[in-house]
Design goal:
By secondary structure, this protein is α+β, with helices and mostly antiparallel strands. It is built from 23 helices and 23 strands. The chain has an eight-stranded mixed beta sheet with strand order 16-23-22-17-21-18-20-19, with helices on both faces. Strands 2, 3, 5, 6, 7, 8 and 11 form a seven-stranded antiparallel beta sheet that branches. Strands 1, 12, 13, 14 and 15 form a five-stranded antiparallel beta sheet that branches. Helix 4 packs across helix 7. The longest helix is centred in the first third of the chain and has 59 residues. The protein starts with 9 loop residues before the first helix and ends with a helix. The relative contact order is 0.10.
């Protein structure tokens, strides 16, 4: 039964892999060299990091100044730190607008604080170029070149503004520093501000330290210049901390501004009342009022004080209404309780609006305007704002009712004042105005002092735990150990992959085991590669060679194959032309004749006749001549130059070889030849292409199928396997020809177990045997011979 196709013997594959050891050394060496070149020329990337702590608890003592004295969201703060606006503030503090580079042999190297000059951008429109080269003519003179080709034919001087050709900057340098850079290839790039900010936004990474430290954040960046990374990270952290303090102070500053505006108005009224009071007393020499007038004045003072408070609240409500209508930043709005307003509903609504607004700001920094959740937030913000405005409108209406009530009560007391003497009545009126303004002024001064204290007591919610340092920066890429390891691994895998692909895709017979695996037909023997290609009759010209010994082994094995049957007629065939049928036929005939047996070699391939010139025979007349009755048997059989060997050549090519081989004369030929010869060897056309071989098989006692190394395809064995299994070919055996495997167990002269000779006479190329190769072949050969001996039934 035919064996499974493509059934890989991994032990055999292992031996093949080892046999490619020079390829392995070359591959590993090449990959290792490429890795070293890559590591040498690749610009290293470093990672710098800093750690900050964010206090996420409520700010103690600030509730009176802020509506938003609530716990900070770490997630929101992370988005805020990485936002475009925050990064832009940091970039504005740094000198990153211009990048400097030195042109290297392979890569350009960025220079940070190592460039011999500095580019100072002037105000005004600035054109952005890819590269601007500075070619120094002397220590103070230079030319500019845009890119590699666009040379500006103008000489510039250091420390002088350049405002032409689209340039608007000054190259600042010390002539001593530029004296050595005449051959120093330096260029700079003016970075577009928006692109620079976006670049650092994308490079900045923020991670939480862990569950045990929820307020600890680590900020990190990667880049080729460690110093630049450290400067940015440390500056960015300070920018963030300052921004937090400024945000806290914004409410207090706005409160102080609002109170100052009110104080300015009250101060004018207070000064006016005080002046009027002093003038009246001097003029009328009245210092005090009567008891009844004092009682009325006290009641009026209380009402006036209550009225002033309500008026101040009304001003705040109007301020808040206008503030919301103008869509200003809610983080800067004055809290209601700062002005003595304890309205929990209003405070809660404003706090809710502020929370929604903060959430929207966070999402906007990391999302697009088309985000559906943004639309949902906008709807919530709108409805909340409308609720606040409606609430303020109702409060203003209520405040007006309260003021009307107070005014009515004041009017009653003023009516009582009308019964007092004129001087006393005037004094009470002036005194009332003075006391009212004085009380309001003192109240506002108190609130301003509270706001000032709150501003002074504001502390940052974040602080630096570990600042970015150069010694903490680590190299990220390239990873020398990883690259080297991968190079070595790839160097090993490339040959292995090549061998596996080669084995899987190769459909030809390449090894002895390929034959053993793909057929159950007995293997009669194996012929090694003919090292003596100058002669066809190797068994005659090199009788002690490995090839000659292989033919002798096949002759011996032939006796063990169906020993009870005669083996006078041996038919030689194959799948296609070029597999060595004629070579085997001629040498096998010679080896049989060497036993002293009369042997006849018949060239039955009349379609592509082989000329046995080394046997002293030509094709002028032969089998085709006999079959068409143009010659007798005696006329077409010739004596060869090998003793006991006669040859019947194919003769001229006939138009109908198959019909001739099926005729009566071929029967007569074999009948006569069997009487005259001990052995008949038939060299036939390949049965894979032509049916002539099948016609002649009825005259043969044994049929030998020739397989040639690297020529015969495995699929062709399928056809012969089918014929063998269906018993359409009797007494079939296989001979493997031209096998290019070497060693003392290579079947080169037998059937799998040699006599241990290292080489034979004439095999000069095999006289020197490497000890490693000898050891390898012994191990390999023992493994192979075990399976093949089973095929030979030995």
């Amino acid at each position: 039964m035919k064996k499974e196709e493509n059934n890989i013997d991994f032990t055999v594959l292992f031996y093949k892999v080892l046999s490619y050891w020079p390829f392995f050394i070359l591959s590993v060496g090449l990959c290792f060299t490429i890795a070293k070149v890559y590591l040498h020329y690749t610009i290293p990337i470093f990672k710098a990091h800093t750690t900050i702590f964010i206090n996420d608890t409520k700010a103690v003592g600030l509730e009176e100044m802020s509506l938003f004295s609530q716990s900070k969201s770490i997630g929101n703060e992370m988005a805020f730190i990485q936002s475009y606006d925050m990064v832009e503030k940091t970039i504005n503090e740094l000198d990153f607008d211009v990048s400097y580079y030195h042109t290297g042999e392979v890569n350009d190297i960025e220079l940070y604080h190592d460039c011999p000059f500095t580019v100072k951008l002037d105000s005004g429109e600035q054109r952005y170029y890819n590269r601007i080269y500075v070619d120094f003519i002397s220590s103070t003179k230079f030319k500019l070149r845009i890119g590699d080709k666009q040379i500006i034919d103008e000489v510039y001087s250091i420390n002088r503004p350049i405002r032409n050709n689209g340039f608007n900057f000054t190259i600042v340098a010390d002539s001593n520093a530029t004296a050595f850079v005449s051959d120093y290839k330096v260029y700079f790039i003016i970075n577009k501000h928006e692109n620079l900010v976006n670049q650092y936004c994308s490079q900045l990474a923020i991670t939480k330290a862990g569950k045990d430290a929820p307020g600890i954040l680590q900020l990190s960046m990667m880049g080729p210049i460690t110093e630049k990374l450290i400067v940015f990270l440390n500056t960015h952290v300070q920018t963030y901390i300052k921004s937090g303090v400024d945000e806290k102070n914004a409410t207090a500053i706005n409160t102080i501004k609002f109170i100052d505006d009110q104080l300015s108005e009250i101060a004018l009224s207070l000064n006016s009342a005080e002046s009027d009071l002093e003038t009246f007393r001097k003029k009328n020499k009245v210092m005090n009022i009567s008891a009844s007038a004092e009682m009325i004045k006290t009641s009026l003072d209380e009402l006036e004080k209550e009225k002033s408070v309500e008026q101040l609240k009304a001003k705040y409500y109007q301020y808040l209404y206008n503030y919301l209508k103008q869509d200003k930043d809610l983080n800067e709005v004055i809290a209601p309780h700062v002005m003595g307003i304890d309205d929990n509903l209003l405070t809660d609504l404003i706090a809710e609006l502020s929370a929604l607004n903060n959430e929207r700001n966070v999402i906007t920094r990391s999302s697009t305007p088309k985000n559906p959740y943004l639309k949902e937030l906008d709807g919530k913000i709108y409805h909340t704002k409308q609720s606040i405005l409606e609430n303020i409108t109702n409060i203003i209406s209520t405040s007006k009712i309260t003021l009307n009530d107070i005014n009515q009560r004041i009017a009653k007391y003023e009516q009582q004042l009308s019964f007092l003497p004129a001087n006393e009545r005037t004094l009470v009126d002036i005194q009332r105005r003075f006391n009212l303004n004085d009380n309001i002024y003192n109240y506002l001064l108190q609130k301003r002092a509270e706001a000032g204290i709150a501003e002074a007591s504001n502390n940052a919610d974040a602080k630096v735990v570990n600042a970015a340092k150069s010694f903490n920066a680590s190299a990220i890429s390239p990873n020398n150990n990883l690259v080297t390891s991968l190079a070595l691994l790839i160097g090993v895998l490339i040959p292995i992959g090549f061998i596996i692909i080669r084995e899987l895709s190769n459909d030809k017979i390449m090894t002895r085991d390929d034959v053993v695996t793909n057929t159950d037909i007995p293997i009669l023997g194996i012929i090694g590669h003919n090292m003596h290609e100058d002669t066809m009759l190797t068994v005659v010209t090199k009788p002690k060679s490995a090839i000659a010994e292989a033919f002798r082994s096949i002759r011996i094995n032939l006796q063990y194959l169906s020993a009870d049957r005669p083996h006078k007629v041996v038919l030689i065939t194959s799948s296609i032309s070029g597999e060595g049928k004629s070579f085997f036929s001629a040498n096998f005939a010679c080896i049989m004749a060497s036993l002293g047996k009369k042997t006849l070699l018949i060239g039955a391939d009349m379609r592509k006749p082989k000329v046995f010139s080394e046997l002293g025979i030509n094709n002028a007349i032969g089998l085709s001549s006999y079959l068409i009755n143009n010659a007798s048997i005696e006329e077409v059989i010739f004596k060869s130059n090998v003793e006991n060997l006669d040859v019947l050549p194919a003769g001229p090519i006939p138009p109908n070889p198959s019909e001739l081989l099926s005729g009566q004369r071929i029967e007569e030929l074999f009948k006569q030849a069997n009487k005259d010869y001990d052995y008949i060897i038939i060299d036939t056309p390949p049965i894979g292409l032509i049916a002539d071989g099948f016609i002649l098989m009825k005259h043969s006692h044994i049929n030998l199928y020739i397989i040639r190394h690297a020529i015969t395809q495995k699929k062709w064995l399928e056809k012969i396997n089918i014929l063998y299994e269906e018993k359409k070919i009797a007494n079939l055996a296989i001979v493997v020809n031209d096998l290019k495997e070497s060693g003392p167990y290579d079947y080169g002269y037998g059937y799998g177990y040699g006599y241990g000779y290292g080489y034979y006479e004439g095999d000069d190329k095999h006289k020197k045997i490497n000890r490693f190769k000898e050891f390898w072949n012994n191990v390999h050969g023992r493994y192979k011979s075990k399976n093949t001996l089973k095929k030979l039934n030995l």
